[in-house]
Each structure stands twice: as C-alpha cells, then as structure tokens.
Amino acid sequence: MRRTPFAVPVVIGLVASVLAGQGSGAATAPLALGAIVRVTTPGTSLCPAEGEPETAVTAKGIWVAYNDDHQCPLTPTFDRIEEVQLIPPQGKPVFIPLTARSGEIISGDPDLAPAGDGGVYLASLWGETNGAFDLRILRISPSLKVTELPTPSLHGANASDDKEFIAVDQTPGSRWRGHLYIAWVDVVTGDTMFRAWNGKTWADPVTIGKDPLPGDPDVTVGPHGTVAVAFTGSEGAIVRLSHDGGKTFGSRIVALSGAAPGRTDASCPLRPTVGVRQRAMMGPRVAFDRAGDLHLVAAIGEFTAGFTTDAPTAALLPTSPAVVQHAVIHGTSVAHREAITAPSTDEQWAAALAPLPRGGVAVSWLQTNGTGYATYDAWIAVQRPGSRAFTAPQKLSTASSNFPAATEAAGNSNCYGIGDYIGMATTKDGVETVWPTTDTDTPGVDSDVLVRTAVAH
C-alpha cells in the first residue's frame, strides 16, 4: 500500500517547476518542506469540491486519487465521482479519465497501492444501475491504461460496501509477492472483511471484525509478507496480523483504547463532530517501519452518541477534544503508546502516516484553530527510530482553511465536509502528504487537494 517501506520508494526528486524549492521550517527542523502542488479537476464546474484524497508513489511519480463533487450546493444533483491525477517528476499533473458504463457511477472512497511496474491499483466504490454499491479495483498501467479486476464484493446485486483500503505485497522474498489485499466494511452484515487477490482469483473472504461499529479498516504489508489489518472495534483501534498471505489472522491486539473523536453537535445528528459541521472518524492507519515494527495512528476521543435539538442540553453531553495518538506494536505486543502533540483545546483528526526511508515514521493530521473551531490546518511530525516521542510539529499548510458548508446539497451524507481521511506515502528521501483545502476557493463550497513533500534531515 501507500505506506509500506518494503516497496522500494523509487521516486522522488521532484524538481524544477513542480516541487522545487524548500518550504517553511528552521534548518534544525526534522523535515524540509517542499513547495505545494494544488490538484483540481479540469473542466467540471465552479465548485468541484475535491476531497478525501489518497496517494501512492511509484517510478512514474506521485499519484493522487480523490472524490469530486461536480455540482454546487445550489444544483443538488448527486454526481460525486472518483478522480486520479499523476504528478510526474517533472511537469504538470496529468489527469487520468475514469469512465463508468452507462448509468453507473465511480463514486469514491478512493485508495491507491503501487504496482511493481510503476503503475497503481485504485480501489473505489461503484454505484450500479440497480442501486447496488459494490467494490471495484482498477489497474492503471505506467502508460495510463485503465483496466478492471473482478469485484471482491460478496452480495452481488444486493451489495453495499464502504471504506475499502488496499495494499500490495512488494516484500523481497515474500511467498506472496505481488498479491493485492483489500479490507472493507460490508454494510449488509456490518462486518469488517478482507480478501486477497493472487493475480487471477480472489481468495475466500475472511471476517476481521464483527463489532457494532463501522470498521473503517486499513491494511499494510511488512517483513516476510506479514499482513496487518487495523480497524475500529468496540475496544478502540484494533490490529490483527496474518502470516499466511491473508488466509488466517491472529487474535485482536488493542493498539489504542478509546472511542471516536469529536463532540456532539446538534446540527450533525449522531455524528462525532470537529470544526464547523465536519464529521470525524477514529480512522486507524497502519504502516511497518524499516525495522519491522508496526505503527498505528488514530484520532481518539470519548464521543457519546446522542442527539438533542435543545442546545443547552447538547452542551452538557460528554465531549472530549479529538487527539491523534500513536502506538508501536512489536511482534504481537504493544511496545508503547503516546500522543503526537501535547494536549490542547484544538481538535485533531484525519491522521495518516508513512515510514521514513532511513527509519522512523512521519504522521500527518488535520487540526482546528482556536476555541471557535472555525478553521483548520494540516500538520506533520516525526518519531525517530527508537524514540518514544515525536518532534515538534511542523505546519504543512501555508494558509488556514474554512470548513465547507451545506455539502449535503451535493449528495453527500450529513456533515461530510471535506471527507473522512487524508493520505501519505514514502518517497525516496522522505514522505509526501495530500489533504483538502478551501483556501482561495469559493468560500464555504469548493475545496481542492494539496500535495506537499517533506525531506527527512
């Protein structure tokens, strides 16, 4: 997947006109930040609202996938689709058209995983003509040719799936090298599921979790082809490991205890909310470092589901500022846990992580500003090899963003805002992060995707 260090991070000395130059941060900062690249969809509308981005790195460059609401809130036609762009080592981003059959919609929740030849796999949800919502995996070749794998969905015309994340085993010497793995939420059963693709067929599905919560899973591959799946469970952020190519998984490892982040907001019924009407998820994300330890990050809080239209009562419901936390799993035991930053009244959510090429990990996240929670920024911090603390955070965004409003009118569920997650990937000399911004866009409506590299000192 985008975070495994065992797929040799072959890019990126992105130079000259695209990612040249060093960004903010003192000379002693752990990361030298590159210039920002803004990704927008060409020729759609005045407010295409790109969001929920994911990313991967191959020899071809930085790949970015994202959701795109073509319609503005004043023209509420459900037209959310998925888009992909490639930022080459030199030159401008290349838009890659994705075409669904008549009456179908490539409807989002994207994820990317690098393929061995420099292309990528793209995971998507797919709206069928009969109303089914199933999983699709597209293969984009180095020449940008798009082909489709058979669906791993389990319920045919009655499928309803969500939050699909993928990884590819690129571990040297692994028995399962080249295998593609997918974890997702089967909305029909409520279970967190897993399947493996060997290049020809899908293996039998494996139930990862049967918790009464959305699983929001992630998957990554480590030494000797070890597969790790993280998901939201009843105890918090849970991990299960497989040492046989995803045929079977070990016991649940509670990496982080707690509940979803966020607070109760009467305008976002039953949603853990951060900022201005932005829903938040625990969103556990996992990656192996170069030493073979598994790292997990998630946004942890104490949200208690409940809704009341009475504002004074709503203000008294249990809340807790959202905080991004980190855990390191060595073998099957949690070695240590810590918060990324010191506690504050700001809300943190949408954590992502990627291993650094010379050891350790970097974590990115979004964070509100001030007691009004009216704006947000993107941040990044580093945990060096052997450390149990993170370096002082560095701000990735150069300008704060306002939270978009009324996104329901564009066909999304309530309080969707800028989406549920951001993405990171390892590069040749550091990491790169993708996140949504509303800075310079149509106020309260539009959002774009920003890409920024960070070179490790």
Give the overall shape, derived from the CA principal axes. Answer: globular
Q: Helical segment tally?
A: 2
Mean pLDDT: 86
Report, as a whole number of angstroms, the end-to-end distance.
24 Å
* Poorly predicted spans: 6-26, 305-318
The secondary structure category is mainly beta
Main β-sheet description: 5 strands, antiparallel
Q: What's the total count of β strands?
A: 31
What percent strand?
35-45%
Helix-residue proportion: under 10%
Radius of gyration: 20 Å
Topology:
Blueprint: H1 16-19, E1 31-39, E2 50-58, E3 61-69, E4 80-87, E5 94-96, E6 105-114, E7 120-127, E8 133-140, E9 146-148, E10 161-168, E11 180-186, E12 191-197, E13 206-209, E14 218-221, E15 227-233, E16 236-242, E17 253-257, E18 273-274, E19 278-279, E20 285-288, E21 294-300, H2 311-316, E22 323-330, E23 333-339, E24 348-355, E25 361-369, E26 375-383, E27 394-395, E28 401-402, E29 423-426, E30 430-437, E31 448-456
Antiparallel strand pairs: 1-31, 2-3, 3-4, 4-5, 6-7, 7-8, 8-9, 10-11, 11-12, 12-13, 14-15, 15-16, 16-17, 18-19, 20-21, 21-22, 22-23, 24-25, 25-26, 26-27, 26-28, 29-30, 30-31
Would you mind describing this structure in some detail?
The structure is a single chain. This protein is mostly beta strands. The chain is built from 2 helices and 31 strands. Strands 24, 25, 26, 27 and 28 form a 5-stranded antiparallel β-sheet that branches. Strands 1-31-30-29 form a 4-stranded antiparallel β-sheet, with no helix packed on it. A hairpin with a 5-residue loop joins strand 25 and strand 26. The radius of gyration is 20 Å and the shape is globular.
